[in-house]
Amino acid sequence: MVNFLLSAAMVGVFALFYGAIRMWMREGFSKKPLLMIIAAIVILGNIAIWAVPDDQGNSLLIEAQKAS
């Protein structure tokens, strides 16, 4: 389940980046594309927190899979 959620979050990141670039090319610089990019960066940071292991090789993703 956690793998599915992280995968869906990555799809959302790509969609936000793509939409922001398309909107920026069509309408020029405005707040909406900038906010979309910021949202994508925040989601990407959350994915990194879950997936990147620490010094001991443990990550929240591995711990969540062990618990279920």
CA(first)-CA(last) distance: 9 Å
Number of domains: 1
Overall form: elongated
Mean pLDDT: 91
- The total count of strands amounts to 0
The parts where pLDDT drops under 50 for at least 5 residues are none
Class derived from helix and strand content: mainly alpha
Proportion of strand residues: under 5%
Helix fraction bin: over 70%
Helix count from the secondary structure assignment: 3
Order of helical and strand elements: HHH
Biggest pleated-sheet summary? none
| Rg | 15 Å
Describe this structure as you would to a colleague:
This protein is mostly helical and 68 residues long. The chain has one domain. The chain is 81% helix and 0% strand. The chain has three helices and no strands. Helix 1 runs antiparallel to helix 2. The longest helix is centred in the first third of the chain and has 26 residues. The chain is elongated and about 45 Å long. It starts with a helix and ends with a helix. The model has no long low-confidence stretch (mean pLDDT 91).
Key attributes of the depicted protein:
single chain; elongated; 0% strand; 68 residues; mainly alpha
Topology of helices and strands:
Layout lengths: L1 H26 L3 H21 L8 H8 L1
Helix pairs in contact: 1-2
Brief synopsis:
The protein has helices at 2-27, 31-51, 60-67. The protein is elongated and about 45 Å long.
